[in-house]
Request: fold
Amino acid sequence: MAKLRFQALESLLNRKYELPTERTEKISDYFGENVFHDRAMQQFLSKDAYRRLRDCMQKGKGLERDIADEVASGMKAWALSKGVTHYTHWFQPLTGRTAEKHDAFFSPSSIGESFEEFGGAQLIQQEPDASSFPNGGLRNTFEARGYTAWDPSSPAFIMGDTLCIPTVFVAYTGESLDYKAPLLKALHALNDAAVPVAQYFDRNVTRVTATLGWEQEYFLVDDALYRARPDLVMTGRTLFGHSSSKGQQLDDHYFGSIPERASAFMRDFEKESHRLGIPIKTRHNEVAPNQFECAPIFEETNLAVDHNQLLMDVMEKVAHMHGLRVLLHEKPYAGINGSGKHNNWSLSTDTGVNLLSPGNTPKTNIRFLAFFVNTIKAVHDYSDLLRASIASASNDHRLGANEAPPAIISVFIGSQLTRALNDLEKNVKDKGMSPDEKTELKLRIGKIPEILLDNTDRNRTSPFAFTGNKFELRAVGSQANCSSSMTVMNTIMAKQLRVFKKDVDALIAEGSKKDEAILAVLRKYIIASKNILFEGNGYGEEWVKEAAKRGLSNIKTTPHALESYHDKKVVALFSDLEIIAPQELEARTEIYHENYKMKIQIESRVAGDLVLNHIIPAALSYQNKVIETLKNLKEVYSGEDFKKLSAPHDKIIREISERLSITRELIDQMIEERKKANVLGSASEGSIAYCDKVLPYLEKIRYQVDKLELVVEDDLWPLPKYRELLFSK
Reply:
């Protein structure tokens, strides 16, 4: 292993790479060229087929079977014109990444010739070989295969020589087996709930769309160094590694220029992303060494999720061509910032209005307050569910690590908007208001845009923060599928808006004016959800104590967070809105538990392998060298001279022996706990056991190994060190 480490460092020193030539074309010249977008559809479809497909995409209408063949024919002609030979249904199983099975357009004829075949049947539905994916709660292999069904709301695209068709993945019996199907249902439910509320303020609104702008953080590491770290290869993170003398203390990476090699990689993956219609706009260094971020313009949520999943694939492929690896793990290195994926969420209407953006009149600002306060109320009522939606074994390392939001779900809105809500609470009357009181209140509401013009008090320690015209869910992990959190976010908002509409209509039926009724209900919600609002430092121990006083949960680990999926309120929420059926929810929860258990199990096995087969031999080799030196000293010196001169060597020998003894004992204990966890009956029991009993050993073992790294001779240490991983360009 030590040889591999130094071979990697040597290859890094000798690596040659060409800086990219200056671009001559504009991004607009090739943006979306590999997407079956509006221009391509108009070119390859009849006017009627184009119109009906657009209605399907924009208005959520179903696509009739008779038009599917024409759409498939047009899509095939477009793909063939670009040299495509295969097609695949591109879906998002519960693995967190994408899946695909490629089929050739090529089809032989009975007379020994061939032709290109792709019809409506192949476009709309397929049966992938997906026996490893669950069917509802039934985990028997023969029952696990399902269908992929075309999602027309997300355009087809070309990757390499393959036409990729975004699809949902469902079981024979109709259960959802992926992330996309529940998201589409949640977006539909949100639209149904939000339109009637938006029509309180504008009768012309017929559709409300949830929008998403994600921010993708990631690390880059040289491919050779990556391959010399089995823990990075197998788990995505370094299980061992003492912190580098210089890390991120100086914040010089964040404010520095983008390194040339990273910049060359960014230019190439951005170009590929733009060709796929992904509107990447921003690139910059992040705080930690060799950490970076990219971000697009916001899009409709389903499309934004697809683009993020696609982007992660593109980044990894392009990085490989540059001799780099992209690390999407939330915490690949201990002691420095991890990586997140902030989800910027908002609501927009088909009339061009952002419902979370204040207007310039009291009426438009009451509209803003309606959706703003309802969002806070939704998060308040379902905070544990939102926490569960961002839970993963890898994200647990990041949350609450004084670099990312804590596991406590709170909402930051800024001191000025806090005062505005307090003002609303104080001045809205339960039993109606006089004309003067109404006028004064509306004048105050009308000043909200002026408040937000200078809203500089953005708190970056909050997991859910209002940032002027959107809410930013900052707790999502860097390798997560955004569908998980966005399904929950849009579902709880749909539920809350339904309740809001019912409450307002009830007051109107009792004789209240519409504005009075809306403000009265909002006042009730402001009072009810106050305890989730927090403007202070989320990293401080004081907040942990204060949150406990307020009754807010602090669920630090995934298995315990997942228990909220069993809550009767949560089961009813998904069931009533027809997002996820109870049996689907049970199956998903089981899969999440199983996934967690397997990841910790892999980390535990890799740690044991590295220690027993690489770390201990290296430490013993160095110890033997020191022992030989000690023997040689004894031949030269004696008495007090030997005692004095041998003390440092004796200290090293003792420290190595003690730490190796402790480490070996810890590994044996960890293995025993693993054996106990492996025989537990349910997936939840197994994951909780791995979390509570096995995982703590990884940190204990790491402590001993990291101390050994400081003692053992550098030439013998088998793993690339943090200074090499973080600062090699």
Q: What stands out?
A: The two ends are 22 Å apart (CA to CA). The longest strand covers residues 208-222. The chain has three domains: 31-178, 188-580, 595-727.
